């Protein structure tokens, strides 16, 4: 995608050998590229959410393995790199998926060959993510085309999003935004309701930023507005992303997704999840009971960062001193509330049989 006319991915190998990322903690008020030089740099980038979004976390973990093995490619070095990275974020399944891919491919190789092989594999994982998201975009575009065909001439298709499942959450295109970008590029009138997505405001800060840079009409709304919009017929469909989806179609995504799904179900609004297959965990059946929900620090809730009138970026406290805070980062939407899963292989029912039929090789690999 483009920023100020220049094409970017969210992660790439720089000419000096470092791994470059866009620091998402600085957006939307500052666009900064950061160099990851060591394994620990990559781990910290994931932990502090300089990079975030399940697909991008997976790609960053793969490149983190590269950086680690370039320092120590022994069996101990391979194990240490894996262990350091796998502990960074507990919920997004793409992290473990990418690390397992790299470890399995490198373990049989001589130590001297591992770093170069890891770099090739990290490149493949990043390139595959772009291809998966583009395919999701094409299948989701068909849904938007169908809705557009039933609307009065020139009336926009109105999409509600939650959090950031855009190109900033992936290597490129995004998951939930890929159909939106493709519809916009095709000339279909589309407008996006962007949930602010507390506590980190990833909708207001990131989704709005990237949609604006691509020229997609959008409006930022407080998180509590979605149900009202649906009641008044102002939402044609909801498209969200996912950090982990179970074998039965339960969807774990940013906190607040479940509430949007309930409102959509109550108002007859289609609720779709953009789902690249590496985000499916075929070892898990019950999302509410089995998926670990990350609890993050209180400061994300008690403080907010923004642009002051004088142009300075400032962080201020918004809650009373001493008030306890709970900060659950994700929730689980049961499959019964999901209209369909937009995958790289088409729109699939949120059900075990449909997912197994669409991705039989993933079921076999999970040994279930």
TrEMBL record:
Keywords, sorted A to Z: Amino-acid biosynthesis, Isomerase, Methionine biosynthesis
GO biological process, one term: L-methionine salvage from methylthioadenosine
Gene3D superfamilies: translation initiation factor eif-2b, domain 1, Translation initiation factor eif-2b, domain 2
Pfam families, sorted: IF-2B
Catalytic function, reaction form: 5-deoxy-alpha-D-ribose 1-phosphate = 5-deoxy-D-ribulose 1-phosphate; 5-(methylsulfanyl)-alpha-D-ribose 1-phosphate = 5-(methylsulfanyl)-D-ribulose 1-phosphate
Hydrolase is among the record's keywords: no
Sequence positions that bind substrate: 52-54, 89, 202, 253-254
SUPFAM superfamilies: NagB/RpiA/CoA transferase-like (SSF100950)
UniProt keyword Signal, yes or no: no
Active site: 243 (proton donor)
Site (Transition state stabilizer): residue numbering on this chain: 163
Stated family: Belongs to the EIF-2B alpha/beta/delta subunits family. MtnA subfamily.
UniProt protein name: Methylthioribose-1-phosphate isomerase
Gene: mtnA
